[in-house]
Amino acid sequence: MSARPANDLYVRYMKAFSDSTAHTANCPACQGETPCVNGAPIHERFARLQDAYRARQTQQQR
Predict the structure, then answer these.
(1) What is the C-alpha separation between 62 and 60, in angstroms, rounded?
(2) What is the model's pLDDT at position 46?
(3) Which of 36, 39, 51, 53 could join 13 via S-S bond, C-beta 3.0 to 4.6 A?
(4) Residue 1, pLDDT score
(5) Sign of the C-alpha dihedral, residues 20, 26, 30, 35?
(6) Position with higher pLDDT, 27 vs 33
(7) How would you write the chain as a 3-class SS string?
(8) Contact of 43 with 20, CB cutoff 8 Å
(9) What is the mean pLDDT of residues 11-16?
(10) How far apart are CA 18 and CA 40, in angstroms?
């Protein structure tokens, strides 16, 4: 099994950002403090990938 390319995390992070932004733009419930049932997993995925990407960036800067 081959490893994922180094930038795969970034690509997934940007896709999650795009998905989250698009959903929020079209969902009044997600524009408030509490996301809707459908939006919650989208926003959670974005948050997880953002945390992972930032952690990798911090690790690489050491």
Answers:
(1) 6
(2) 97
(3) 53
(4) 46
(5) negative
(6) 27
(7) CCCCCCCHHHHHHHHHHHHHHHHHHHCHHHHCCCCCCCHHHHHHHHHHHHHHHHHHHHHHHC
(8) yes
(9) 96
(10) 14
Q: What span, in angstroms and rounded, lies between the C-alpha atoms of 59 and 53?
A: 10
pLDDT at residue 3, rounded to an integer: 56
C-alpha dihedral sign at 37, 30, 13, 50: negative
CA distance 24 to 8: 24
Q: Which two tokens stand for residue 22?
A: 């698009």
Residues belonging to the chain? 62
Segment 27-33 long-range contacts (CB within 8 Å, at least 24 positions apart): none
